[in-house]
Write a structure and sequence with these properties.
Helix content: 10-25%
Number of domains: 3
Radius of gyration: 24 Å
Strand content: 35-45%
Shape: extended
Structural class: alpha+beta
Distance between the termini: 62 Å
């Protein structure tokens, strides 16, 4: 299976491919030089037709950490994808009470087969720490702001009481 390394930019209707590379090293150098986020590994000539020929279709499975299946649906039309992938959606800013979800796109014979594939990915994703919801502790303050003054000429003077009572 040959791979290419693709640098993209934009979102939604502005999403586009910026460049493609034959090696990860070349792609990483490009992203670093021009300040792009990262290069994505894509399969060259993905075997979608071969998968369809042996009776596999594209399925999307949504699963909770405990293995409860929230949705398993065959993908049709523009929802179909050329490669399998998975991700963990830890937070939903529109629905903050929603639990974290495993979302799997896979090629499977039927709904049960797709759920089995997602079920095989779930424990690996837990062991790999993908479900880790912990956030780093916020930095501890080094002092308390006591006074803020605007100086002539537009500057600002801030008086801070540091730990131990010193002022700066």
């Amino acid at each position: 299976m040959k791979k290419v390394y693709v640098v993209t930019d934009g979102m939604y209707s502005d999403f586009h491919v910026v460049a493609m590379f034959s090696t990860q090293k070349k792609a990483d150098a490009f992203t670093k030089l021009l300040n792009y986020d990262e290069a994505y590994e894509w399969e060259l000539d993905p075997p979608v037709a071969e998968k369809a020929a042996v009776g596999l279709d594209c399925w999307r499975v949504v699963m909770l950490r405990d293995g409860t299946v929230k949705k398993a649906k065959k993908q049709t039309g523009s929802d179909r994808h050329h490669r399998a992938w998975h991700r963990i959606d830890l937070k939903d800013y529109w629905n903050p009470d929603r639990p974290p979800l495993l979302i799997v796109l896979c090629f499977a014979r039927d709904k049960e087969h797709a759920i089995k594939i997602a079920g095989d990915i779930r424990p690996r994703s837990i062991v790999d720490g993908e479900w880790d919801e912990s956030e780093p502790e916020p930095p501890k303050p080094i002092g308390i702001t006591k006074d803020i003054k605007r100086l002539p000429g537009g500057g600002i003077s801030i008086t801070v009481e540091l730990e131990g009572g010193a002022k700066e």
